[in-house]
Amino acid sequence: MPFTTVDVVIFTVIEARLRVLLVQRPNVKDDPCPGLWALPGGFVDVDRDDSLEACARRKLLEKTAVVSPYLEQLGSWGGARRDPRGWSATHVYFALIPAEGLQLAKGANAAEVGWFEVDEVLGWPALAFDHAEILRAAVDRLRSKVEYTSLPAFLLEEPFTLPQLQRMYEVVLGRDVDKSGFRTRMLAAHFLEEAGYVAGHSNRPAMGYRLRDRTGPVVFPRTFSPRQ
Amino acid sequence: MPFTTVDVVIFTVIEARLRVLLVQRPNVKDDPCPGLWALPGGFVDVDRDDSLEACARRKLLEKTAVVSPYLEQLGSWGGARRDPRGWSATHVYFALIPAEGLQLAKGANAAEVGWFEVDEVLGWPALAFDHAEILRAAVDRLRSKVEYTSLPAFLLEEPFTLPQLQRMYEVVLGRDVDKSGFRTRMLAAHFLEEAGYVAGHSNRPAMGYRLRDRTGPVVFPRTFSPRQ
DNA sequence: AGAATAGTGTCTCTAAGACAGTATAAA
DNA sequence: TTTATACTGTCTTAGAGACACTATTCT
Any idea where the Nudix hydrolase domain is (chains A, B) (predicted)? Predict the structure, then answer.
């Protein structure tokens, strides 16, 4: 019988960079991947976890103390050789959380925890298990969904302004987005509601917005597609 | 420790209807859902299956004798109460196969196997386990992807004609599609290559096409969106 | 006044949608 | 010659993209 784990790919944006939470595995002999960086996760606890999603939520809460993030199932990876301990299957979720006021809790058996720039990590020689492949799938999914959904809104604390939201899009997509088109698109999709003016650090204050519906992103009928 | 299964939602189009393969569970006392219709699937065999996808492929081959279908991971469902035998997690794949020359093999422990109209099944009072929920998720995924990908091509044997492909779109979407726009869209996406004229039953022969790449569908930059 | 950021107006152009038309086969 | 299906052409229009413009705050 295969053993079952749940892993979570947690994204946030810090200092204008898309980052992912990684934990370092303990550098001891009996660990399957000693010393390597891994996605947070681990075994399902059949007594505490009522479902896979509940398990993912628990693991996310333990690491980041974030209660209600955006959480989406990414997929599952399973096979005979991905874990030296035997046939295993992991259910992977990915989460988007706002960076404001984040505090990391070191796990019991995790040597270190940190936020790493996604594009750097993708260039590393190895992550634990097949976590490099999983991370790549998560980044691909995120970048592709950002082209046609309102997902980046979940990277911001409410209320947020349209310029802030635009910056989230630009950070994730890795390219500039036209201001005017961006604004019409966001307002036309009707997923934002006004929440009063927010004073910035200086200069003209901007309108703050809240999501009408925090359960999921809105899907736009077209992708962002700059002319080449 | 949870136990691990793999289920497969197999779609095809027969007589202009989107259909799904279901198997009837044996009507015996020790079965968890006796007599109910279920998605084909079952336990992972750690000796025969090298990976989750290999397991799905095996189950599909056993039921339909189709060797290289379109196969995509749909998601996973796991929890304490979805199977009366205990905490379980299932990895679900969905497959698209052409209807031509299909032959069904009855499984060893399956009383009956059949192709059922999807919209009918969605109205049934119950399927085994949480398979009603899983089927709904699969249909939602399929219908939404059909709006912006070339997925319906995998419902046809090659070579196929553009009118045939259009019919697949119309069956899955449940609405008519404009011929002219459909053709420009398909040809502009450049995923088809000509394969000589195919004589229909009567009337003017149509150009046959093959997929340039059978590994996956092409993504269109916009969804089909008829004006309201 | 000047700088910085927020927000609007306008023009162009692509491609989708609607629909009428032409082309090629069989009966 | 009619019928059925395959395929093309043309017109309209929505909306994206580009970019210049105005508005409001702080220093």
Answer: 1-139
